[in-house]
Amino acid sequence: MGDWCSQHPICWNEAIAVAMVASIAHTITKRCLNPKGSIYCNKDPKTIPAMAHQQDKMDAVFDLVRMIPAGRVSTYGAIAAAIGLKSGARWVGYCMNLSHQVVPKVPAHRVVNSAGLLTGRHHFTSPEQMQLLLEQEGVTVVDHQVKNFKKLLWEPLLEL
């Protein structure tokens, strides 16, 4: 762990560390959407304090999301469970918010909430972009929800 964490014993609790990373990711995302910009915008997450020791988990999330077939969707919770993060759906969501600058590309538009709602749509260039990307892959979206969600659901623990 970094110098900051070594001075703060609370970081040794991984659940709290994950929550801290989620909070930092949320702050970074909000700052990057701020027209005034931020020192964190367009930077590699490895360079952001408190995220460096979570990079392996972030990479696992990104790699797993890249495996979702075109025309299918998965959920934040299913991705979290597949990499061993209990109750990590929110953290996966924050990873998806940061994924727009990751190379190779991460198809974050294929990750929805457990009811098939496009809850992450506001973190795309425009709120409509997530739906447009899904529709280009043959997924029907009505009122911000994937139609035939259960049929299109890709669950990594069952399909890998």
Describe this structure as you would to a colleague.
The protein is built from 8 helices and 4 strands; from the N terminus they run αααβααβαββαα. It has 160 residues and is mainly α. The protein has a single domain, classed as Winged helix-like DNA-binding domain superfamily/Winged helix DNA-binding domain (Arc Repressor Mutant, subunit A, Orthogonal Bundle), CATH 1.10.10.10. It has a two-stranded parallel sheet. A two-stranded antiparallel ribbon has the order 3-4. The longest helix is centred in the N-terminal third of the chain and has 20 residues, at 14-33. The radius of gyration is 16 Å and the shape is globular. The two termini are 32 Å apart.
The dominant shape is globular
Query: Mind telling me the CATH superfamily name?
Result: Winged helix-like DNA-binding domain superfamily/Winged helix DNA-binding domain
- Taken as a percent bin, the fraction of beta residues is 5-15%
| Total helical segments | 8
H/E element string?
HHHEHHEHEEHH
User: What structural class do the secondary elements suggest?
Assistant: mainly alpha
Tell me the domain tally.
Answer: 1
What's the CATH first level? Answer: Mainly Alpha
Poorly predicted regions: 1-21, 23-43
Distance between the termini: 32 Å
Q: What is the gyration radius calculated from CA atoms? A: 16 Å
Number of strands: 4
Strand order of the largest sheet: 1-2
Q: On the 0-100 scale, what is the average pLDDT?
A: 77
